[in-house]
RNA sequence: GCGAGGGUGGCGGAAUUGGCAUACGCGCUGGAUUUAGGAUCCAGUCCGCCGAAAGCGGGUGCGGGUUCAAGUCCCGCCCCUCGCACCA
């Protein structure tokens, strides 16, 4: 129940939200004097907004408000990543139009975010599903196409049999579809790709610029994802036909130990290899089986490797020896060259494969200080570096040197040489879906693939489609008025590309559109981009480390190379916030969330089955969400903000609890009561005072204030909002207990406290600020400066230890010397007792902190 | 398996150039106020030594080490979370 002591949150919040809006307080000032671009990852507008979504925006808002009060002109926009599958699924399930569904959700999201009073410049709102936006997404596609960075390729791709669509590598999690968890299979399709591998080296290299500015684990994740590996390409030849069969290896020194080769089942050269093989049918059957298996099945580690002999041989580049070629599904088609050389003596996988199929083992490396391993006795491959043996002209070389020499020899022979391989794959962007940006390409029988001329953009999505059920092709393929068009080159009949783009294309450049959201000539004006880029602080979930954050860096670099941008990287600082978890009770029998009053002694009363207590990320499907709207109505936006910020370190996961809400609410109420009590004292000038001439009580408060300013500034800049709030709570207690409430120190503390609180509880602060008689916003203040002379009290407590154990604490003036402190310490009863019968051997003094007496 | 992060009261968490472990909040206990409840305010709250105070001892996942001094540094383990995982 709300008592009359509780502050009227909703009333205050609505009042100031309206006032901020009328005053245009958060409108971007362009050109900026001193710019600061704060960006939170924009949301996909799904159903309603819950507290789990909020953390991102609350953190961003604190950053933005602190920067406003540090005198920056900020750009702090919000928009919608509004293309994507859920809209289409809703259309399939409920028959609603994806566009209408999306618009409704956007309206709900916008209204909810507005209720939170976050400092967005709403005039810059964008939605990726808006033709005014996706026109430029298409423009970017064409831009890449012109640069040779968008190309079409027939390939085996990740295919989700349930969603009936192609997935990027990044959308395959543990071999399963990210969305529906169905095992992904391989399917051969012709698709559009972005050549992100051309940028692999720079994407890796420029991570160095981000060190100390991005979370180290995100940098590491990207590094692993790019997966640079230095090695050697070695070209074998197919016996008889002379087809080149390149392999990639990091161990060129083991080349003389090759006893077989293995090629991936989906390798494009395989059909040619087996064309005239007696084993052809057997191989084809093996390939069929392999492609049916899901990635998850194929890559299960404990699974025994399988393979089948192709009946064909390759020629060793040095020895001319015949090497049998096998097909094996443990070889990945999309890493290296898709063919590996089998060196069973020195590679564990090859060893296992050779053992299974009775292939010979040939030792070509021996330990530096040991004997040559004997093949018949080996139980595992010898994978260490050592000295090359049985390797012709290279015999006797240490591995490291051998790797170099073999590579340069191959280079001379034109049969390979040093090369670099990346784990990163080209970015497959075609999606067989309706609700995305159409790929702006036209296929003409005569002219081939032709880009849609820029002046014809956007290629609009047709409306009024009824049937969105996945059929293995884009719903657009069945819309003749969309598909059928004229070739822009020859004017003859032609067909549009029926696919739409991966939504990660939409979000790879949105930070640029915010800079110039209504530009009708260009995606953005390069001059404006120069004024505002890079994003100074980007805030979002760590789950985007290898998807969005790599794609955005890639697109940014392409635009940088074209001279449209002046910075190499889009996001200068990145902060990744933790999740919001909510405890709930789950009945495994009824398969639903159960309220506490339905449970008795751990048993679900309704069905008699035991209840499981779970702590998981808030999600609508689980039913453990706290919706924002009703919460704000009941407790207010500021309470929601404080709850989130105080619960723990912002980068860590937090549990949303009622107790946390109570604590936040209580804190704000304490502030409200203190200010209500002294409301009549808030107005008017505060007389100047000399801190040196204050009473002890006053000086203590003055020092507490300086300390708090110092700590709040420091903690806020480091994203330690929980400890910043702890300091504010301490100062509040100090002010509440302060008795000389007419003192200028007290009055000044009240004033500055409001400003310190403002980034965290903006509505309450704005209200209290106006109680001082101010007419301008609390955010037109500078964040308070501390008086550096007083950030520490002049009294200090020195711990007196004897042999490392604290035996007394002394209250003394700061700055005492060791001798003085020791004299004082020796007067202490407890110290004397512990020194009885002992000699002081040595003392260690840490000024103003500690004195350790070593005695014995 | 590899990589990263983590393990501190009943709970969320503070404290890192090595220097008073447990700030702040929640919960709990007692008191004040109140017809009562709620709300609020004050005091207490790491554990143990029968209660209290003083005092003493123990204590930051486990075992060792360096040091006058270790949550913090070093060595060896255990456990948890996340990411990658047949990458040739």
UniProtKB/TrEMBL annotation:
Residues 223-410 form the Leucyl-tRNA synthetase editing domain. InterPro entries: aa-tRNA-synth_I_CS, aa-tRNA-synth_Ia, Leu-tRNA-ligase, Leu_tRNA-synth_edit, M/V/L/I-tRNA-synth_anticd-bd, Rossmann-like_a/b/a_fold, tRNAsynth_Ia_anticodon-bd, Val/Leu/Ile-tRNA-synth_edit. One of its GO terms (molecular function) is ATP binding. Residues 702-819 form the Methionyl/Valyl/Leucyl/Isoleucyl-tRNA synthetase anticodon-binding domain. Gene3D superfamilies: HUPs, Isoleucyl-tRNA Synthetase, Domain 1. Residues 15-219, 424-581 form the Aminoacyl-tRNA synthetase class Ia domain. Its EC number is 6.1.1.4. Its main location: cytoplasm. GO terms for cellular component: cytosol. Keywords: Aminoacyl-tRNA synthetase, ATP-binding, Cytoplasm, Ligase, Nucleotide-binding, Protein biosynthesis. SUPFAM superfamilies: Anticodon-binding domain of a subclass of class I aminoacyl-tRNA synthetases (SSF47323), Nucleotidylyl transferase (SSF52374), ValRS/IleRS/LeuRS editing domain (SSF50677). It catalyses: tRNA(Leu) + L-leucine + ATP = L-leucyl-tRNA(Leu) + AMP + diphosphate. The keyword Nucleotide-binding applies. A motif ('HIGH' region) lies at residues 43-53. CDD domains: Anticodon_Ia_Leu_BEm, LeuRS_core. ATP binds at residue 620. It is found in: Cytoplasm. PROSITE patterns: AA_TRNA_LIGASE_I. GO terms for biological process: leucyl-tRNA aminoacylation. Belongs to the class-I aminoacyl-tRNA synthetase family. PANTHER family: LEUCINE--TRNA LIGASE, MITOCHONDRIAL (PTHR43740:SF2), LEUCYL-TRNA SYNTHETASE (PTHR43740). This is Leucine--tRNA ligase. The gene is leuS.
């Amino acid at each position: 129940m709300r008592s009359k002591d509780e502050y009227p949150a909703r009333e205050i919040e609505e009042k100031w939200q309206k006032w901020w809006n009328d005053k245009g307080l958060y409108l971007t000032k362009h050109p900026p004097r001193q710019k600061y671009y704060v960006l939170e990852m924009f949301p996909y507008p799904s159903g309603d907004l819950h507290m789990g979504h909020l953390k991102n925006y609350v953190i961003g808002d604190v950053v933005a408000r602190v920067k406003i009060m540090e005198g920056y002109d900020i750009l702090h926009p919000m928009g919608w990543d509004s293309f994507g599958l859920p809209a289409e699924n809703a259309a399939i399930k409920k028959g609603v139009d994806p566009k209408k569904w999306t618009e409704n959700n956007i309206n709900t999201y916008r209204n909810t975010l507005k209720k939170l009073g976050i400092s967005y410049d709403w005039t810059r709102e964008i939605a990726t599903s808006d033709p005014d936006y996706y026109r430029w997404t298409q423009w970017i596609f064409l831009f890449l196409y012109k640069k040779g960075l968008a190309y079409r390729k027939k390939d085996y791709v990740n295919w989700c049999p349930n969603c009936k669509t192609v997935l990027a590598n990044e959308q395959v999690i543990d071999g399963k579809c990210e969305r529906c968890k169905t095992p992904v299979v391989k399917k051969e399709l012709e698709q559009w790709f972005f050549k992100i591998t051309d940028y692999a080296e720079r994407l890796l290299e420029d991570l160095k610029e981000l060190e100390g500015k991005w979370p180290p684990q995100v940098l590491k994740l990207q590094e692993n994802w790019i997966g640079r590996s230095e090695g050697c390409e070695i070209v074998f030849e197919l016996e008889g036909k002379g087809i080149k069969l390149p392999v990639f290896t990091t161990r060129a020194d083991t080349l003389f130990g090759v006893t077989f080769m293995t090629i991936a089942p989906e390798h494009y050269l395989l059909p040619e290899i087996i064309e005239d093989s007696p084993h052809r049918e057997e191989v084809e059957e093996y390939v069929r089986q392999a492609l049916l298996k899901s990635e998850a099945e194929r890559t299960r580690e404990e699974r025994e490797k399988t393979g089948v002999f192709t009946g064909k041989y390759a020629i060793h580049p040095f020895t001319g020896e015949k090497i049998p070629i096998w097909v094996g599904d443990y070889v990945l088609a999309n890493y290296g060259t898709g063919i590996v050389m089998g060196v069973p003596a020195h590679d564990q996988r090859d060893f296992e494969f050779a053992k299974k199929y009775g292939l010979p083992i040939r030792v070509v490396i021996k330990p530096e200080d040991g004997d040559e391993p004997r093949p018949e006795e080996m139980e595992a491959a010898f994978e260490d570096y050592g000295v090359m043996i049985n390797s012709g002209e290279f015999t006797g070389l240490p591995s490291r040197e051998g790797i170099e020499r073999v590579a340069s020899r191959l280079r001379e022979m034109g049969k390979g040489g040093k090369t670099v391989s990346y784990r990163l794959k080209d970015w497959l962007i075609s999606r067989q879906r309706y609700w995305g940006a159409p790929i702006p390409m036209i296929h003409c029988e005569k002219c081939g693939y032709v880009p849609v001329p820029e002046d014809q953009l956007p290629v609009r999505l047709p409306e009024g489609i009824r049937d969105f059920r996945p059929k293995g092709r884009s719903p657009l393929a069945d819309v003749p008025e969309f598909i059928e068009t004229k070739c822009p080159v020859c004017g003859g009949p032609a067909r549009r590309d029926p696919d739409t783009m991966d939504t990660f294309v939409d979000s790879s450049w949105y930070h640029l559109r915010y800079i110039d959201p209504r530009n009708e000539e260009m995606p953005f004006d390069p001059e404006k981009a120069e004024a505002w880029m890079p994003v100074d602080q980007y805030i979002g979930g760590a789950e985007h480390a290898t998807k969005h954050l790599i794609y955005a860096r890639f697109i940014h670099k392409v635009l940088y190379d074209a001279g449209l941008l002046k910075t190499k990287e889009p996001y200068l600082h990145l902060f990744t916030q933790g999740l919001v978890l909510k405890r709930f009770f789950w009945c495994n029998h009824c398969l639903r969330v159960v309220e506490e009053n339905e449970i008795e002694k751990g048993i679900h009363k309704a069905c008699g089955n035991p209840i499981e207590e779970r702590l998981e990320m808030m999600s609508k499907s689980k039913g453990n969400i706290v919706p924002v709207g009703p919460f704000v109505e009941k407790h207010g936006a500021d309470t929601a903000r404080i709850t989130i910020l105080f619960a723990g370190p912002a980068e860590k996961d937090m549990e949303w609890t009622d107790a946390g809400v109570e604590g936040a609410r209580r804190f704000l109420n304490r502030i409200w009561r203190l200010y209500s009590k002294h409301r009549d004292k808030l107005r008017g000038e505060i007389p100047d005072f000399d801190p040196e001439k204050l009473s002890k009580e006053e000086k203590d408060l003055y020092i507490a204030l300086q300390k708090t300013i110092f700590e709040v500034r420091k903690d806020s800049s480091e994203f330690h909002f929980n400890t910043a709030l702890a300091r504010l709570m301490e100062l509040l207690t100090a002010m509440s207990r302060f008795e000389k409430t007419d003192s200028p120190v007290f009055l000044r503390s009240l004033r500055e406290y409001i400003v310190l609180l403002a980034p965290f509880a903006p509505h309450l602060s704005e209200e209290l600020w106006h109680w001082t008689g101010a007419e301008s916003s609390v955010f037109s203040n500078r964040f308070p400066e501390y008086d550096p002379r007083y950030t520490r009290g002049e009294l200090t407590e020195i711990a007196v230890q004897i042999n490392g154990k604290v035996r007394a604490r002394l209250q003394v003036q700061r700055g005492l010397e060791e001798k003085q402190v020791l004299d004082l310490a020796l007067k202490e009863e407890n110290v004397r007792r512990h020194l009885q019968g002992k000699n002081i051997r040595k003392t260690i003094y840490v000024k103003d902190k500690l004195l350790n007496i070593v005695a014995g």
